[in-house]
UniProtKB/TrEMBL annotation:
Compartment list: Membrane
InterPro entries: Methylamine_util_MauE
Transmembrane segments: 27-45, 66-88, 94-115
A biological process from GO: methylamine metabolic process
Organism expressing this protein natively: Halostreptopolyspora alba
Bilayer topology: Multi-pass membrane protein
Protein name as it appears in the record: DoxX family membrane protein
Keyword vocabulary terms for this entry: Membrane, Transmembrane, Transmembrane helix
Amino acid sequence: MDTRDHPPADTPTVGPWAARWELAQPWVSLLARLGLAGVLGFAAYTKRIPELSIESVEAYQLFPPAVAEFIGYTLPLFEFALALLLVVGLATRYVAAVSGLLMIVFIAGIISAWARGLTIDCGCFGTGGEVTPEETRYGLDIARDVGFLALAGIVMVWPRSPFALDRLFGLYR
């Protein structure tokens, strides 16, 4: 029998879509990783004024003032740290998982404010506090954060990407 027509039985066959995905996946993951890093970095940057960040957290009426103040001070630093780790590609899968959990917390907070009838700006990008009912955008804010959650999911499931320190340490080859 001529083996040119039929590969040996122990040779896996890869379909054309699987082969294309294998080539595209690292670049898709890179774009998702950098996109998520950009969002987190921009969010941290816009919350750099502690008073405004604290006001945004207090608007949700979920925490005592001291806890809201702590979150207002630390959240921008946490977002910046996640963004930095994503940019350099270090512990990518774990950082993406933590970023995804953060997005779930943000989504839950927005849903909570909406369900309780609060009229606030989400405070996601530096603005926050009470607004008129016409100025709320809860549905759009949730949809946007679901999109960011999807980016985190892509990076978590497929962490292998170019220009990542993970590759130097032999992770996600």
